[in-house]
Fold these 2 entries.
Entry 1:
Amino acid sequence: MKNICFCFQMHVPYRLKRYRFFDIGHDHYYYDDMQTEEYLNWLVETSYMPLCRTIQDMIKLSKGKFHCALAVSGTVLELFEQFNPEMIDVLKELADSKCVEFLAVPHAYALAGEFNENEMIDQLEKQGALIQEQFGQKPVSVWNTELLYSDEIAFHLQKAGYKTILTEGAKHVLSWKSPNYLYLSAASPKVKLLMRNTGLSDELSFHFSDPGWYNFPLDAEKYANMLAGLPEGEDIINIWLGAETFGVRQNAGTGIFDFLRALPYYAMERSIGFVTPAEAVKKLPATEVISVPYALTWAGEAKDMSIYAGNDLQQEAINKLYAVAERVRLCSDKRLKNDWLKLQDINYLHYMNHIDQGATQFESAYDAFINYMNILADFLQLVEEQYPTTIENEELNELLKTINNQEKEIQKLNKELAAAKKKKEK
Amino acid sequence: MKALMFGWEFPPHILGGLGTASYGLTRGMAQQEDMEITFVIPKPWGDEDQSFLKIIGANSIPVVWKDSNYDYVRQRMEGRMSPEEYYHYRDGIRYNYRRIGTDDLGCINFSGRYPDNLVEEIGNYEAVASVLAHSLDFDIIHSHDWLTYPAGVFAKHISGKPLVIHVHATDFDRSRGNVNPTVYAIERRGMDEADHIMCVSELTRRTVIEKYGQNPDKVSTVHNAVEPLPNPDEFVKHERKDKVVTFLGRITMQKGPEYFVEAAARVLEKTDGVRFVMAGSGDMMNKMIDLVAQRGIADRFHFPGFMRGKQVQEMLAESDVYIMPSVSEPFGISPLEAMQVGCPSIISHQSGCAEILQHAIKTDYWDIDAMADAIYAIVKYPALYKSLHELGREEVNNIRWYDAGIKVRKIYDRVIANR
């Protein structure tokens, strides 16, 4: 029996404010809350909210047969709480329906997986705790930032206890193989891989309203037929999309929401079911091993890191940022830790791309880089004030350990002292 | 295709960007095989590169009929033209220009510069154009900048051939809006009479449409380009302690020098190890020296004066940043020259070249905060310098005069076909 595995991904970055070099050392707040709020509300209104409502309809119409997963970053959850709590309520309703799986996503939607695996795990746990607290679910399947994946990342995730990973079904990895099977990771046979069906996902995100595309006009029946027509044995079809596909990339006028609403009926008519990644792993066998030596993502044509870490500007920003990763992890200053998370947002790197800058508010890649580096300079200065670079990381670690342990040490010594006194009295 | 072009400057003896652009464009166009260009300038020096076009000096064209014998003409025109050519032009005299002061061969003595009696010189140039229009064979007339519009218009009336004019600048750019009525009238008449108007940027095109009331269909943009350097590696950047930020150009209102000084003051508030250079001369130079002193940054601000030729490239190659905060720049070729030698550029949005450059930093001319920020970033963040240095150079090397020439040629073809 064929199954569709739908995943919808949501993330919104904090908008950075215009930060000039003369602000370095004076101004330690880096965000433009007005812009963030405005953008978030616009996105919720045109895309996220109608999408969630549509999912609710789909669940209702299919009598609970429709299942899907949501990849919601910690950042966007925080923003919902702050600016648009209604979204949290809707997500809670979805969670209560038991038809929706919440995926583990790095809290700040960062590329940490490639540059600092401890940071990646920390962020997954942070977001996981938030999901647990809000929606009463513990995420088990990992949607790494932009589906970033490699054997090494799988190894670290497996060590941290994650056994299901989602990634891109890129041609250069799969070659002749089909993405419509469950696979095993080369890092560990315990880790199961789901591969995104690029073609069928793009059908919706890029081609849905393109009159020049050969499948135009695409309706739910046609789409269900396409899925039903896949070869025997290809039992999991992973249709994973950025949530903004619905309402922004394909605006409501294209009929994308109606398409979605109608899909469960036509799918079930052809006895196609719906699963979430966690259900798929339980239900379906995995046989073949997929090896991914180099970073794989769902971005661009190359399906690698080039959009985010391809040019000198991006490399420099990444190097400067992750150089202090260990120091920030050691520290306990809440604000510093908070900024550290926010500054890792992948969007800031995207803005520095010369060709495609995504939803940037900056005029050019250079403009984005200058602004970001000024902010980073201020942030690094704060880190430096806490922990001077003259001290090596390991030495620092030791010192911190000593400081943190001194309480225990004092207690222990007190005890000994008391014991000694007692002895003496005797 | 034979084009008769009227220009005012031609390298190596140039006073501004017009000469450079004229040279580049004609050279790019000459690569089209069937293109024959005759380029008229008021006063050639004799050392112009004539390998790809024919240069005619307006000061060698008789406008008043003088009876001179063959040997005398040969002796006087030595190195400029043959007596036969002289007599050919002399046969083209149809009007009485005895009111103009001429020499014993009936030629006018042009200064070829921008003298005080510029308007008179423009009129005299028009007289020469009439003679040329009567004696030469051509398909199209092409006038470069307002000084040559009257000549082009007159040639058009005489020959009936189409006229295209090339707007390298308008008086609105030069004067920050306070236009000289005489200049405006000359410009306006040239545009009204032209069959097609080519502008060096979209910015200029809009000015031509809005301020000179031209029909948008008649106005196109042909962006300038830059001649590739024969030996780009000749210019090297020496290691030095201080970073160098350079402004290079006429120190006049149009170029926005005061914004550079203010931005420099901002940068120096926060950091040292940066030096600022304002190369060039102009009517605002003394004012700028005063301003630098007032801001208390004179120890870090230098005025080396006017530079020419190779000095310019050497200066640019040694700089860490080139800045052009022009208030209104029709095109602005110098950032391209800076990028050619690998110097990162900061340009104003009010410069035409901003339309075609991606790997340069753009700010508004009045936004000294943004300008200071950009300077600081290039100086402090090596990755930014490296990107602008490498990608900028690559980008500029792909902006070719040949392509601009093809655009001009298409306009020629269209104008001729529409007649």
Entry 2:
Amino acid sequence: MIPLSAYTTVSAILFMTGLVGVLVRRNFIIVLMSVEIMMNAANINLVAFSHYLESMAGQLVALFIIAIAAGEAAVGLAIIIVVFRSKISTNVDEMNLLKW
Amino acid sequence: MIGMFFAYFAVVSIAAGVLTVSLRHPVHCALSLLVLLMHVSGLFILLNAEFLWAVQVIVYVGAILVLYLFVLMLMNLKTDERYFHPWALYILGPAVVGGGYVLSLLLRSPFDGAKGDTPAAAVLQDGNTYAVGIKMFSDHLLQFEIVGIFLLGAIIGAIVLAKTPKPLDRERERL
């Protein structure tokens, strides 16, 4: 029997990896991929707790998270395409049109 | 046996996550994200969540990741020389320290709580999909509808954003 803390450890490491990716990488698409890593870490956590605490609610929230990740990917990639069309770059440092 | 599978899925998914963040070429990053998603779905199987495993493979790998790859190949990106943020090292140090602190907290905590109403035996009797469906369409119906509205909004937003702006092009041609 695998202890629950093993799953939370994997999830925490994955979440830190995604967070570092969001902060460190400069390509906007890879920043979005790091957000997907963080969402997967949250999903592992939810499903593990749902299994060990014998409740179905965690798996349902994980399902909703997957749906929201799909929406986020669609809208985020559409925004990237719009920006890429006008600036020919996906570097987050060069997207400063809305900067005050 | 289960421990072996867990170790395999955990180690490979963490390695694939690190590769996703650190590889230089965006398509390679997307492919290592694919490896990560498949191994996370393996972790779901170990946790008796077959329905979520299928959703992960179909929606995440089959739809979201293919969308990423489509956009990457549409753009034909050149890899940058300096692809990390200039402050990368200053971010990495605190992140590792903070992550280690969180890990030490996690390994010490007992994680006890009130048990829910679906023990593993009840789930195994009718199947995980049945249990998820019963729960979703009884207690969580409102959230389900909200997610449906959200997806509709996301579809409309993506179409509106990615549409070619016609009047702007005509102006550009005149110039």
